[in-house]
Every structure is written in C-alpha cells, then in structure tokens.
Amino acid sequence: MEKRIQIITGHYGSGKTEFAVNLALKYAKAGLKTALADLDIVNPYFRSTERRALLEEHGVRVISTSFSGYVDLPAITPEVLAIFDDPSYKGVIDMGGDPEGAHVLGRFERQLARGDYDVLCVLNANRPETKTPEKAALYLKAIEVASGLKVTGLVNNTHLCRDTGVEDILKGVALTRAVSEETGVPVAYHAVERKFVDQVRYQLGEGELLPIDIYMCKPWEFGL
Prior knowledge:
Blueprint: E1 5-10, H1 16-29, E2 34-39, H2 52-57, E3 61-63, H3 81-85, E4 90-95, H4 99-102, H5 109-112, E5 117-123, H6 133-147, E6 153-156, H7 166-183, E7 187-193, H8 197-200, E8 208-212
Parallel strand pairs: 1-4, 1-5, 2-3, 2-4, 5-6, 6-7, 7-8
C-alpha cells in the first residue's frame, strides 16, 4: 500500500521534478490535502517551486527552500516539518537528484523513523548515467547510502522532452524492469505524456500508469 509521504529522487535530467509536480496534482485532483516540498538545493535547474501558481491553483501547498526557492542556498525551512507532523497531508518531497542532495533528508531522521514514506527513484533510459541496468542500480545504491533510506519503488520516466516517442517510453519499460529484477525494488509508476497513453497502455507491465502533462520544459526546449 502506498505510504502517506512520497520522496522523489532521480538523476539530473531524469524528469524527477516533472514527476513530482504531476504526482502532487494527481493527489490534489483526487481531493486529498496535498503538500509538495521542493528540497532540491544542489545544482537545481528545474525547480518545482517554478510551478507554484499552478500547484496552488489546484490546492497544493508548496514548501520551498529559503527565499522561496529562487535563491540556491543550502537551507531548509522548518515549514517542511508540516509534511511529516501533520497526518492530514499527502506529502510529495522533491529531493536533490544526486547523493549530495540526498544528504538533506538526514536532518529529518527523527521524523523519518516513523516509516510513513516511500522513496521513489525516477529513471530515464536516455540519460547516460542511468541508461543500463548496472549503472542505474549503482546510482540507486548511492542514493540509499547518502540518504540512509531504502528505495521502495522505481519510476519509468524515459523521455527526450519535446522529441519523446513511443520507442523511448518502451525503452524505459525494459530498463526499469531490468533494474527491478536486479535490485528487487518493484516498479511503482510509468510516467507517460498523455498523448502517448493509448499507444503504450498495454505494454507497460508492472507499475501504475501516471498520465502526465509537461510543465517543466523551458521555452527554448519547445523551439520557441
């Protein structure tokens, strides 16, 4: 059964933040009291905080690092404790996407000891650092060592931003399945852009299909 708090990690370029934003919106649209904490304070390029207006429009409470997440300082606001301490929240934590970023969670050791969380590792088969099962498994283990937490689920979010095709999604299915077999970590989600859902729905296997909208691409990545 899915836990109350979902901690999202993934390599730079995996689509970790895109997945976190879409997951928070899914919960909010289902009528759940939802909070999203942007804790990605290491080399952030995409920040879930950038979509604060969209998230708040749908009732998602957005919690960011100091200075509203727009200045990259290694500081965490105490407001994050609301996700851990208020059981009425369904929480999504967008964690830093490398072992250094994972260290952030160490300061919440007491809260995490309650165990009411999942750690989801987002994989993108088109990223050189995680394109093989062996590389992806090594990355997963590095995150576990740095955070002191066990990854409990895998997320296939294989994409090439605006150039994504069905073949990319299916390549991600194969990679995620192989990593699951190697590590014993189950596949939790396949994040699939809505326009591809009908083409891949019956080829995903284990894991929940999460239709997503693209919120995090920069204007120049759409050729604007």
